[in-house]
Design goal:
The protein has 300 residues and is α+β, with helices and mostly antiparallel strands. It folds into 2 domains: 3-143, 60s Ribosomal Protein L30, Chain: A, CATH 3.30.1330; 150-292, Phosphoribosyl-aminoimidazole Synthetase, Chain A, domain 2, CATH 3.90.650. It has helices at residues 3-6, 8-17, 63-80, 100-116, 172-175, 180-189, 202-213, 233-238, 251-260; strands at 25-27, 34-37, 42-52, 84-94, 120-128, 133-143, 158-162, 194-197, 216-220, 245-249, 267-274, 280-283, 289-291. Strands 8-10-7-11-9-12-13 form a 7-stranded mixed β-sheet, with helices on both faces. Strand 4, helix 4 and strand 5 (120-128) form a beta-alpha-beta unit. Helix 3 (63-80) packs parallel to helix 6 (180-189). The longest helix is centred in the first third of the chain and has 18 residues, at 63-80. The two termini are 13 Å apart. The structure holds adenosine-5'-diphosphate and magnesium ion (MG).
Length: 300
């Protein structure tokens, strides 16, 4: 069998099956970040993301946006756990023929994001390679009582999403800003049952929440905020790299949240969590119900 037949998610499941953790690790493979034992009141969060030229960006996108995106994607994962990013390492693969200015731009992008979110670049690694590769490993922390996992959704929860989806193909995947302040507001002030950031597409990432929580859901086309630059509805809900937050909470908390949301970032209630055997379905604008298969962006 080749990787393409297995798919990215099943490959990760297969890796995870053979891993045994010590009691120092609270949560290993399977959420937006790992969750590790740390202090009496806090957990440590740990995540990495790799961007490869030709896959995630083109050289013509310019070093600045590539640098920005690499750190922003990892911050987005820390945000999805309810945490704060703190320290990161950068591993860089670059062709020997690359103009020095290009590398300067990558680091200017990284530094701008680091400054905005108050994270420290504390090291990394450099190798030569055919294509440009940027990998960021980011540590963060979260108060134990504010940690939000993918696995905590409950039947009857309302499902929310920040911002608009479907703009990635038009360049937003390079220019987005991680929803850290929104996530911290949510974690600090509300009982959020589950949360994820949208990197594989709304359907796949909501599917990750439902899979981990062993539940189903119904979402409504009329309530899903689609970016003006999206090609069409179907591609917008399946394409990845929106880096918006999808989260679930009780109806009561949902009401309190909609009444108090203080940000200009749009907040939309897009559906409800239901029993697993109902699966995941989409109610179209014409009222017809379609069953959804959570197969968003995967690398193979
Ligand atoms: P995200 O899109 O939130 O960054 P991924 O889909 O990349 O999450 O990863 C899902 C989970 O699988 C995470 O816990 C991640 O750490 C883990 N993971 C991904 N690739 C590997 C790998 N090659 N080896 C071990 N764990 C992996
Ligand atoms: Mg994620």
């Amino acid at each position: 069998m080749i990787l393409k037949d297995l798919g990215e998610f099943r490959l990760i499941d297969r890796i995870a099956r053979h891993i045994k953790l010590s009691s120092r690790s609270i949560k290993g493979i399977g959420d937006d970040t790992a969750v590790l034992r740390y202090t009496e009141k806090k957990y440590l969060l740990f995540t990495c993301d790799m961007l490869i030229e030709g896959r995630h960006f083109l050289r013509t996108s310019g070093g600045y946006l590539i640098g920005k995106k690499s750190l922003s994607a990892s911050i987005s994962d820390i945000a999805a756990m309810g945490g704060e990013p703190r320290f990161f390492l950068v591993s860089l693969g670059v062709p020997a023929s690359l103009n020095l200015k290009y590398v300067d731009c990558i680091y200017r992008g990284i530094r701008d994001v680091a400054k905005k979110f108050n994270v420290d670049l504390v090291g990394g690694d450099t190798v030569s390679s055919g294509n440009i590769i940027v990998n960021i490993a980011l540590l963060g922390e979260v108060e134990k009582n504010k940690l939000v996992l993918r696995s905590g959704a409950k039947e009857g929860d309302e499902i929310f999403i920040t911002g608009f989806i479907g703009g990635a193909a038009e360049g937003r995947h390079l220019t987005f800003s991680p929803r850290l302040k929104e996530a911290r507001y949510l974690a600090r002030n509300f009982k959020i049952h589950s949360m994820i950031d949208v990197s594989d597409g709304l359907v796949a990432d909501l599917g990750h929440i439902l899979g981990s929580s062993k539940l189903g859901a119904v979402i409504y086309e009329r309530d899903i905020p689609i970016s003006k630059s999206a090609k069409n509805f179907k591609s917008a809900i399946k394409e990845g790299e929106d880096f918006e937050l999808v989260f679930t909470m009780s109806r009561g908390e949902g009401k309190r949240l909609t009444a108090s949301w203080p940000f200009s970032t749009r907040l939309s209630k897009i559906g409800e969590v239901c029993r697993r055997r109902k699966g995941m379905s989409l109610v179209r604008k014409n009222g017809k119900k379609e069953s959804m298969i959570p197969g968003g962006y995967t690398h193979f």
